[in-house]
Amino acid sequence: MPLVNQSSLLYLWDLRTLFLGPLAELLELSQAAATLVLGLDHEFVLESAGELVHCRSALLPAGSRVRLQPGQNRLVVWYLDPFGADFGSLRGRMARQEAGLFVELEQETGWIARHLDLLQEAATPEQAYALIEQLLGTSSADASVLKIDPRILRVVELIKRDVSNNLSARYLAAQVDLSEPRLSQLFKDTLGVPIRRYRQWHRLFVTAVGVTRGLSLTTAALEAGFTDSAHFSRTFRSILGMTPSAMLSPRGKIRMYAG
Q: Mind listing the pLDDT tens digit for each residue in 116-157?
């Protein structure tokens, strides 16, 4: 998530997260969820697999390690549904693949214009969510879970239900009658990241939701299962490439909504 130095918007839903706003510093990202990035003002630069990619829009698969150079840009950052429905819909709309990333979204200009409207109008969560559903041209990502192995859905449910505890892979495997290695492989094949990484990502989401509900950043992080502020900060930086205070501090110039 980006560094905020003027008004920004952050929308948090169970399946998706959306950031819109200015971004100035270099970010080193370790993607825990597939992500769509749009440059609202001009191109940005991505570094992946030792290559530089200049583009106005990019689709980053879950598990990607990417350096993002925004270049004093306002960006849209869509963290997409973990089950791959959004990613599958968008991948076929990208013009080309470079360095393991998908770039140049079809109808890119229209997508940028619609998101500029969201930012300028400080859209409600309902308006923002309706936009992505409309742009994707698919039914809600909730429908995608019908195609997912029910054992993986069960594991995701268990993690989310008890996110503050480190449920072991052995325990989770036993709940769905799988061996631990088989569960680990099936989970990564389905969501694109290991169980531990998904749990870390969901804890970041739960922390952000806690902040929107009035908790301090430290309290929200502890309730989400981080052992202390340092643990939270390390995880935030390792996944999102920056310190958490710029994004989640109540003093920051950002409007946050939990849907």
A: 999 888 888 888 888 888 888 755 455 454 578 999 999 999
The pTM is what? Answer: 0.84
User: How many Å apart are CA 29 and CA 20, to the nearest integer?
Assistant: 17
- What amino acid occupies position 25? E
Q: Which amino acid is at 33?
A: A
| C-alpha–C-alpha distance, residues 90 and 219, integer Å | 37
Q: Using CB atoms within 10 A of its CB, is residue 139 exposed (0-12), middle (13-18) or buried (19+)? A: exposed
Beta-strand pair 94-98/254-258: unpaired
Q: What is the pLDDT of residues 202-215, one digit of tens each?
A: 998 898 889 888 89
| Contact by Cβ (8 Å): 16, 229 | no
Residue 166 banded pLDDT, cuts 50, 70, 90:
very high
Domains of the chain by start residue, with CATH: 8-140 (2.60.120.280), 144-244 (1.10.10.60)
